[in-house]
Amino acid sequence: RKEVEQDPGPFNVPEGATVAFNCTYSNSASQSFFWYRQDCRKEPKLLMSVYSSGNEDGRFTAQLNRASQYISLLIRDSKLSDSATYLCVVNPPRQLTFGKGTKLSVIP
Amino acid sequence: EAQVTQNPRYLITVTGKKLTVTCSQNMNHEYMSWYRQDPGLGLRQIYYSMNVEVTDKGDVPEGYKVSRKEKRNFPLILESPSPNQTSLYFCASSPLGHTEAFFGQGTRLTVV
Q1: A99 vs A101: CA distance, rounded Å
Q2: B42 touches chain A (CB under 8 A)
Q3: What is the distance in angstroms between the Cα of A27 and the nearest Cα belonging to chain B?
Q4: pLDDT tens-digit profile of A54-106?
Q5: How far is residue B22 CA from its own chain's centroid?
Q6: Do B100 and A49 lie within an 8 Å CB cutoff?
Q7: Which residues of A32-56 are buried (b: 16+ CB within 10 A; e: fewer)?
Q8: Which residues of B touch A43 (CB under 8 A)?
Q9: Is residue A90 within 8 Å of A28, Cβ to Cβ?
Q10: Using one digit for the tens of pLDDT, what is the confidence trace for B28-69?
Q11: Pairwise CB contact (< 8 Å): B40 & A100
Q12: A101: closest CA among A80, A59, A76, A73?
């Protein structure tokens, strides 16, 4: 089983839609969880950390389910500017591990 | 401004000619790492370092070397580059505890 797995997409959604991404991880000792955003050929940038209690930042909501070892990202009211690749990042002890990313295209 | 700086941004070289990609951070982070990104394969870790003089292999270390003589610098060395090392490379740093990783702007390397 791969350490971090994501659906690669692409997800093509109309503006205003709600879209959800899931990510599963294999190392139960993982301690921290993040979602990063990467625009084409640019460096990844932190979108949000993911906490056990779930957390929200504007239109973005992240959830963590430790028992099932998955994390999720929900984007409400999608904007054209949300088009990017979303990377799930897990921190087992000692090193960050990245999923391959899910590509999102928001269509006018 | 807090940043991770990689140089060069673009490099075309020939097989077998040694090269170094530099990475420097100004945030006093303990943890630094190198990744390569290839289509369909995502970000794969090459090497990482927990602190000065402490380095360890990531998932794809073959053909690469690193050093961590100073906290701020973490150069990536390709002793004898080959075409399969053509890729987009990112350097990243974070404090221990991984509250957030900061990435350099990337180095696009082509080996012909």
Answers
A1: 5
A2: yes
A3: 15
A4: 899 999 999 999 999 999 999 999 999 999 999 999 986 667 888 999 999 99
A5: 8
A6: yes
A7: bbbbbbbeeeebbebbbbbeeeeee
A8: 90, 103-106
A9: no
A10: 999 999 999 998 888 999 999 999 999 999 999 999 999 999
A11: yes
A12: A73
Q: Which amino acid is at A62?
A: A
A91 shares contact with chain B (CB less than 8 Å): yes
- Give A19's strand partners: A75
Contact indicator for B31, B94 with CB cutoff of 8 Å: yes
Name the nearest CA neighbour of B101 among B43, B56, B55.
B43
Q: How far is CA A40 from CA A44, A80, A86, B44, B111, in A?
A: 10, 14, 11, 17, 22
The tokens for B74 are 């973490």
Answer yes or no: do A43 and B106 touch at CB < 8 A. yes
Token digits of residue A67: 């028992």
Inter-chain Cβ pairs, chain A and chain B, closer than 8 A? 54
A51 vs A89, residue with greater confidence: A89
SS (H, E, C) A72-98: EEEECCCCHHHCEEEEEEEECCCCCEE
